[in-house]
Amino acid sequence: MTPRLQRYGNRHGESGVRAWALSGDTLSVEFVDGAVYDYRRRDVGPRKFDAACAAARAGRGLSTCISRHLRERYAARHDDRNAWAAARAAAPRPPSGAVRGGRAR
Fold first, then answer.
1. 3-class secondary structure, 41
2. Is residue 28 a part of any domain in this protein?
3. What DSSP string describes 2-64?
4. Would residue 104 count as lying in a domain?
5. 63: number of Cβ within 10 Å
6. 76 is in which domain, residue-wise?
7. Higher-confidence residue: 98 or 74?
8. How far from chain centre, in Å, is Cα 104?
9. % pLDDT > 90, the chain
10. Residue range 10-26, pLDDT digits in tens
Protein backbone atom coordinates (compact mmCIF):
# COMPACT_ATOMS: atom_id res chain seq x y z
CA MET A 1 0.00 0.00 0.00
CA THR A 2 1.31 3.42 -0.94
CA PRO A 3 1.39 5.88 1.97
CA ARG A 4 -0.51 9.12 1.47
CA LEU A 5 1.38 12.34 1.28
CA GLN A 6 0.21 14.59 4.07
CA ARG A 7 0.34 18.36 3.97
CA TYR A 8 3.46 19.75 5.62
CA GLY A 9 2.78 22.10 8.56
CA ASN A 10 4.87 24.95 7.10
CA ARG A 11 4.41 27.00 10.25
CA HIS A 12 6.16 30.09 8.86
CA GLY A 13 4.64 29.92 5.37
CA GLU A 14 7.96 30.07 3.52
CA SER A 15 8.97 26.42 3.17
CA GLY A 16 9.87 24.75 -0.09
CA VAL A 17 8.17 21.58 1.22
CA ARG A 18 4.52 20.94 0.34
CA ALA A 19 3.87 17.43 1.73
CA TRP A 20 5.56 14.35 3.19
CA ALA A 21 4.99 10.65 3.89
CA LEU A 22 6.85 8.15 6.04
CA SER A 23 6.80 4.47 5.15
CA GLY A 24 9.19 2.24 7.06
CA ASP A 25 12.71 3.50 6.40
CA THR A 26 11.73 5.87 3.59
CA LEU A 27 10.76 9.52 3.98
CA SER A 28 9.11 10.93 0.85
CA VAL A 29 9.02 14.70 0.47
CA GLU A 30 7.02 16.67 -2.10
CA PHE A 31 8.42 20.11 -2.87
CA VAL A 32 6.47 23.12 -4.12
CA ASP A 33 7.71 22.48 -7.68
CA GLY A 34 5.79 19.17 -7.56
CA ALA A 35 8.82 16.86 -7.48
CA VAL A 36 8.80 14.09 -4.87
CA TYR A 37 12.08 12.82 -3.42
CA ASP A 38 12.56 9.60 -1.43
CA TYR A 39 15.18 9.64 1.32
CA ARG A 40 16.14 6.30 2.90
CA ARG A 41 17.61 5.78 6.34
CA ARG A 42 20.48 3.67 4.98
CA ASP A 43 21.43 6.35 2.44
CA VAL A 44 21.43 9.37 4.76
CA GLY A 45 22.25 7.74 8.10
CA PRO A 46 19.97 7.14 11.07
CA ARG A 47 20.62 10.42 12.93
CA LYS A 48 19.96 12.62 9.92
CA PHE A 49 16.99 10.50 8.86
CA ASP A 50 15.43 10.70 12.33
CA ALA A 51 16.02 14.46 12.46
CA ALA A 52 14.26 14.89 9.10
CA CYS A 53 11.32 12.75 10.27
CA ALA A 54 11.03 14.79 13.46
CA ALA A 55 11.05 18.02 11.44
CA ALA A 56 8.35 16.65 9.12
CA ARG A 57 6.14 15.71 12.07
CA ALA A 58 6.70 19.07 13.75
CA GLY A 59 5.88 21.00 10.58
CA ARG A 60 9.01 23.11 10.76
CA GLY A 61 12.64 22.85 9.73
CA LEU A 62 12.32 20.08 7.13
CA SER A 63 13.43 22.14 4.14
CA THR A 64 16.44 23.42 6.10
CA CYS A 65 17.31 19.91 7.30
CA ILE A 66 17.20 18.60 3.74
CA SER A 67 19.26 21.44 2.27
CA ARG A 68 21.90 21.24 5.00
CA HIS A 69 22.18 17.52 5.65
CA LEU A 70 20.43 15.33 3.09
CA ARG A 71 20.73 17.34 -0.10
CA GLU A 72 21.73 15.00 -2.94
CA ARG A 73 21.52 11.81 -0.88
CA TYR A 74 18.05 10.91 -2.10
CA ALA A 75 17.23 7.37 -3.23
CA ALA A 76 14.78 8.42 -5.96
CA ARG A 77 13.28 11.51 -7.58
CA HIS A 78 9.82 11.56 -9.15
CA ASP A 79 8.47 14.35 -11.37
CA ASP A 80 5.18 14.54 -9.48
CA ARG A 81 3.04 12.71 -6.94
CA ASN A 82 1.37 10.56 -9.63
CA ALA A 83 4.77 9.26 -10.78
CA TRP A 84 5.72 8.73 -7.12
CA ALA A 85 2.54 6.76 -6.40
CA ALA A 86 3.01 4.62 -9.52
CA ALA A 87 6.62 3.83 -8.57
CA ARG A 88 5.61 2.96 -4.99
CA ALA A 89 2.78 0.71 -6.18
CA ALA A 90 5.10 -1.13 -8.58
CA ALA A 91 7.90 -1.62 -6.03
CA PRO A 92 8.47 -5.23 -4.95
CA ARG A 93 7.42 -5.98 -1.40
CA PRO A 94 9.16 -8.41 0.92
CA PRO A 95 7.14 -11.55 1.67
CA SER A 96 5.14 -11.59 4.90
CA GLY A 97 7.29 -12.33 7.90
CA ALA A 98 10.46 -11.34 6.05
CA VAL A 99 13.27 -10.04 8.19
CA ARG A 100 14.52 -6.57 7.37
CA GLY A 101 17.02 -4.62 9.41
CA GLY A 102 17.41 -7.41 11.93
CA ARG A 103 13.74 -7.45 13.01
CA ALA A 104 10.76 -9.37 11.75
CA ARG A 105 8.20 -7.05 10.16
1. helix
2. yes
3. PPPPEE---TTS--SEEEEEEETTEEEEEETTS-EEEEEHHHH-HHHHHHHHHHHHHTSSHHH
4. no
5. 18
6. 6-88
7. 74
8. 22
9. 63
10. 777 788 999 999 999 99
